[in-house]
Amino acid sequence: MLRINHSYIEISKDLQGSAKENFSPDKQVILQRMIENLPSSSWANIEILDWAPDDNILPVTYASYESPFGEVLIANTPKGVCYLGVVNDKSGYVSDDFNKRFGYAKPKETKTSQQKTALNYLNGKMDELLQFHLNGTPYQTEVWRRLLRIPFGKVISYATLADDRKHSRAAGTANGRNPIFYLVPCHRAVYTDGKFDRYSWGKDIKKRLLAWEFANSQT
Questions:
Q1: pLDDT > 70: percent of the chain
Q2: What is the pTM of this model?
Q3: Sheet harboring 108-109: ordered strands across?
Q4: In this predicted model, what pLDDT tens digit does every residue of 64-99 receive, in sequence order?
Q5: Residue 51: which of 72, 77, 26 has the closest Cα?
Q6: Using an 8 Å Cβ cutoff, are 130 and 183 in contact?
Q7: How far apart are the first and last CA of the chain?
Q8: Among this protein's residues, is 82 annotated catalytic?
Q9: Which of 94, 119, 126, 186 is catalytic?
């Protein structure tokens, strides 16, 4: 279980108030947290299953939950969790994104044990294996697996994510197609100079996530 000394809500409030200089992840702070080589193992007890051609016939179920990060939508197939979106002020985006990905399956609103395992992870309880079943190209899936190797409280550049500076743009595009908020940590990928701009769930949320992780980990 993660040892959390500062809550996400606390950090979010501090970023908007007088204490923002203590937690705001500026470029210098981000560069101090940047690593050039990925560890060989995942940052948590998580694995990603490949999406087989006939997996499109599998049923998809979903439900909404309250989490430390706000309201989330979690969906799964029988093989694993296939979507996790943070709603907050982007409810329209999450609904549209989810329907674009899985509207063909006519998802049913049902709570499942797989969803609850993902919710436990959002609450820092990471003892049980969490399986993701993600629909992506082979290259996207490769990038998402590399994201799992970024440690909590650290960041990497898109060039490191690509394992080749020439392919950093392609890696960034695959990073942006990641369907799993926070747990497949695409927020831990930034530009080589420490800057970051777009983030599927909102740039402000990426800033809060990085600030929260930095406040709860060592340099």
A1: 89
A2: 0.92
A3: 46-49, 130-133, 80-86, 70-77, 61-67, 108-109
A4: 999 999 999 999 999 999 999 998 765 688 999 999
A5: 77
A6: yes
A7: 20
A8: no
A9: 186
